[in-house]
Amino acid sequence: MNIAVVTSLYPVPLRPFEGIFAARRWEGMLKRGHAVRVVHALPWAPLPLGRYRALAQAPAHEVRDGVPVLRPRHLHVPGRPRGNAARFAQRALAVLLAGPRPDIVVCDYAWPASALAPLLRTARWPGDPQRVPCVVNGRGSDVLQVAGEAGLGRDLGANLAAADGWCAVSQDLVDALDRVAGGPARGVLVPNGVDMELFSPGDRAAARRTLGLAADGALVVVVGHLIERKDPLLALEAFHAGAPAGARLVFVGRGALAAAVEARAAQLGLGARVALVGERPPAELRDWYRAADALLLTSRREGRPNVVLEALASGTPVIATEAGGTRELLRDPRWLHRGREPEAIGGLLRAALDAPPAPEELRAAVEPLSWRASFETLERFLASVTAAVRSREGSAA
Fold this sequence. Notes:
This protein is of the alpha/beta class. The protein has helices at residues 20-31, 51-56, 81-97, 110-113, 116-120, 141-147, 153-162, 171-181, 204-211, 232-242, 258-267, 282-291, 306-313, 326-329, 342-354, 359-366, 371-396, and strands at residues 2-7, 35-40, 42-44, 61-64, 67-70, 73-75, 104-108, 134-138, 166-168, 188-189, 219-223, 248-252, 274-276, 294-297, 318-321, 336-337. Strand 1 (2-7), helix 1 (20-31) and strand 2 (35-40) form a beta-alpha-beta unit.
């Protein structure tokens, strides 16, 4: 199958881990024999500050693990999401039409990429009268935040109505897309997979030596961006409320709340027991999961968090707030809390540290969620949509 992927979220050289979960999917599909190219349309801003600076320096074209990645620029005006989405879609379409006709286009990361769906209804490649099918894939905040506080639910719904189908990485997101679209439920669950070879139980002492950590004492890790949606300050408060004396907390990730986390840790008298180590590559994450006694996740919103999959595959207990697809992975009330009270979350953390489950039990819970199973589900979905559109187009002719 010839697959064109249009997205706003994909790794760039200065941000190699941003969107890495998307890159894994499409690099994996390439290895399974599909032709894959990615159009990673980037915002152009007159003053490339902050995140835009890294994007501005991204190459216009590169090949990442065999996948061609094209990066056209579109004008980005802060505070104008509808106009930005329209310009994103127009630039992406121009790049697509300049290349070979794909069998299907995947708008990966629903907003703004889904704005391409209405344009593809009338777009035609030279010499081919049939239109190209289009599906939308949701991953998290691109659905929940856009349809919620961003107030763009109606726009997203119109884009879905123009698409030939949609899918998402969690059932919670599938249901959200169905609600936004209205009408009968049409979404399909296509979860991310987890690398069961890379993330596996290992020697805790050896992992700590590799990371330069002390061998004794409980270690709790928080893996993810230090941003409001992930609420790292709640994780810090929960650790303070429930972790035993001498336990340590390590934040693996970067984000705007890093300074706030450090300041609050100092106020709580935890400065010597809390560390921020920044963003780390997947191969090193494996050692952090193995070294840890528990992973703590206190997000306000989630798709289906990869860190939970990776930790469980590594045999590491996970304590989390009930957010989105997290509850699809953690069904046991010993590990999942519905509220946001640090004392209650801390109590679950202490219980997990006092009586941890067997690593084999945790790993068994995610063994069906391999990348191979994910690819097979995606292949069936894309093939069914392509066949349905081809059949309808043929009947209309």
